Ectonucleotide pyrophosphatase phosphodiesterase family member 3-like
Amino acid sequence: MDSDSISILTSKAPTKREEELPDSTDALLSSSDAPQKSSTKSVLFISLVLSTCVALSAAIAIAFLFFSSSSSSNSESINEVARPLTKLKHPVVLLISSDGFRFGYQFKTYTPNINRLIKNGTEAESGLIPVFPTLTFPNHYSIVTGLYPAYHGIINNYFTDPETNEVFTMASHEPKWWLGEPLWETVVNHGLKASTYFWPGSEVHKGSWNCPKDYCMFYNSSVPFEERVDTVLKYFDLSSSDIPSFMTLYFEDPDHQGHQVGPDDPLITEAVANIDEMIGKLIRGLEERGVFEDVTVIMVGDHGMVGTCDKKLIFLDDLTSWIEIPTEWVQYYTPLLAICPPSGYSPKDVVAKMNEGLKSGKVDNGQYLSVYLKEELPSRLHYAASDRIPPIIGLVQEGYKVEQKRSTRQECGGAHGYDNAFFSMRTIFIAHGPQFARGRKVPSFENVQIYNLVTTILNIQGAANNGTASFPQSILLPSH
Ligand SMILES: [Zn+2]
């Protein structure tokens, strides 16, 4: 599908051990390759013996240092193999999303339950990388399909189909919008059970997934988080063959608060503590049922959050001297500007005129918006190969917003949707279960890798996707 991305991702995801081994080998080679200069054979011989001794002791010392330092942090993961199930009859993956859980929020307050998963599980050391645009629907659907938005079709939270002029919104459940094969469909295609307690796309009937009653909850934001956790726990009271192999659980927080007050408000701290309590409630429930060590819990977010303020704005009306951009052309303002000019206008000309204005120095904050033809966006964004993506896309600098016209409003809050290279857009990946080493840190990776990870844990064949086939082996414990 997207081979360039695959090779980039492969090189990004070495294991800790792979990273360390070549260094120690280099150290051994360079010390034994030290040049020897001498005028006589005996001196040469003695110096050879001496240098060999020095080299050997250096090698031993280096090897000792290497193994002792790695054993303190990594001894379990080096020797450990996947742990057998003790109570469950089949593997179960519970995928939890805490919306807008920016990487680093776990340090905002005391989070003993999330810490327990981290300490006894595997964590993306610098966070999970979302896909572009770093918005809720595109990212949740990339997590469960392993596809970039251009391929799974949900290219934004809101967009217009250029063929039919129909509008997709977050309430659109018609299968035609939702391409690719989400995990719940893959799982039921294999004769296993799946359950969804909310997830974008989960209500959509696809293949053998028909959103079955009691196993597929229709989205309703007013359901208390406790009730969601209790429902998931009750699945573990079913007879063994009825326990779903794959479950989702979704919380709107802390995204909800992040938009209102930005990432650094005490309201976020409170929301994070509350999510931690929900994780605690879940862990207690699983322990009471004797299945906590058997269940694979994967906790992620969909994107991060950055503070915004109304002094950091770019107004399209300020470009009028170069080109007029009517509101009807604009499908989405910010942080991803998406423009579809009507036929008769050349997108290339529109882009050129907009950029001329933005770079003129005469447009407030113009330097913080760059406009592209979608084909000319950086390829790492994978945001071109779909007719649904409008021809003109603007990338906004972190924390800035695009609006049509000036207003006197002075608000501060938070936003996401920016370039996924910004660390503020990163979220968390924490996995705890029989196939995850305890206390292991892995390098950051993109969320399209999660699909293959889940199918590997469940031991089923997944659909084609943008994830790397070898990724699961780099992060899971070997089975023997
Ligand atoms: Zn979100």
Remarks:
- The longest helix spans residues 41-79.
- Residues 1-56, 58-75 have pLDDT under 50 and may be disordered.
- The longest strand covers residues 93-98.
